[in-house]
Design brief:
The chain is α+β, with helices and mostly antiparallel strands. The protein folds into two domains: 4-70, Winged helix-like DNA-binding domain superfamily/Winged helix DNA-binding domain (Arc Repressor Mutant, subunit A, Orthogonal Bundle); 84-258, Beta-Lactamase. Helix content is 50%, strand content 19%. It has helices spanning 4-25, 31-38, 42-54, 71-83, 87-101, 143-151, 154-163, 177-190, 232-237, 239-258, and strands at residues 58-60, 67-69, 104-111, 114-121, 136-138, 193-196, 203-211, 217-226. A hairpin with a 5-residue loop joins strand 7 (203-211) and strand 8 (217-226). It is globular, with a radius of gyration of 20 Å.
């Protein structure tokens, strides 16, 4: 018979397998679906999901269609990314990119209803917009946020937009859900997020996806600058350089995941 330490360890591994399955699917899951994906007995899944829900690692989906990632797990993921061992490599890639295009570059991840700035390299120009590491910015009016929304399945995208507060930050902010959905469709096709003075008046930005091993958006790589120096057309001319750097970031993540 296994001792209590072994039982606790086994239970912890099973809980992690449940979390891994939920993250891998990227959508709310029922207990039955989790059991199917993990191969765990349904009774075990129900018991561990109840524990994970009680402790804030997972939460009932707002749609009522199962369980979603909870706030405590999101915070853990954010903290893990912020202190991970690939920081120096990632920062070097951002530094190289910023030097190549001469503008501020940042790496961001979606977090709840916002984008979170994980890393950033400032331009040497005296005129620049201050959005330091740790900043949280809206989804509906930023290049990175719109790119993330555009990457979602259509039904999930619409559902998420319906739950967002489409606050106007500038006269250019898109505040009508249907207009935003139409704008996102173009972003989905091009895989380039744009912000044409929608978040901060006098600032433009573009963003490209950084993908994981399964080709899903894991983060965004963006650059922005003031319109007195950088037009929207000039910002879009940086997209090839951004994509090359994003491919390097994806490669770094893949190499570390394989270790």
């Amino acid at each position: 018979m296994a001792n209590k330490g072994e039982e606790k360890g086994s239970r912890s591994i099973r809980a992690l397998e449940i979390v891994e399955a939920m993250v891998g699917e990227g959508r709310p899951l029922s207990a039955a679906k989790i059991a199917e994906l993990t191969g765990l007995p349904k009774a075990t899944v129900h018991r561990l999901c109840a524990l994970l829900t009680e402790t804030g690692f997972v939460t009932p989906s707002p749609s009522g269609e199962g369980l979603s990632i909870g706030p405590r797990l999101r915070d853990l993921a954010m903290a893990t990314i912020a202190v991970d061992t690939d920081y120096s490599q990632r920062h070097r890639i951002l530094t190289d990119l910023s030097q190549e295009i001469g503008e501020t570059c940042n790496f961001n991840i979606p977090m709840g209803g916002e984008m979170y700035y994980i890393d950033r390299v400032e331009t040497k120009w005296p005129l620049r917009t201050q959005l330091p590491i740790g900043s949280r910015v809206p989804l509906h009016c930023t290049a990175s946020g719109k790119l993330y929304l555009a990457s979602l399945p259509a039904a999930r995208r619409r559902q998420m937009i319906q739950g967002l507060d489409l606050t106007p930050h500038t006269p250019g902010t898109i505040t009508e859900p249907e207009s935003l959905l139409a704008n996102l469709e173009g972003i989905r096709r091009e895989k380039v997020g744009t912000d044409n003075q929608e978040f901060i008046e006098g600032m433009v930005a573009v963003a490209v996806p950084v993908t994981d091993a399964k080709g899903r958006l894991a983060g965004t790589l963006a650059c922005h600058g003031p319109t007195v120096r950088m037009s929207m057309e000039r910002a879009q001319s940086f997209v090839p350089a951004l994509r090359r750097a994003a491919a390097r970031l994806s490669q770094v993540g893949g190499e570390l995941a394989a270790e």
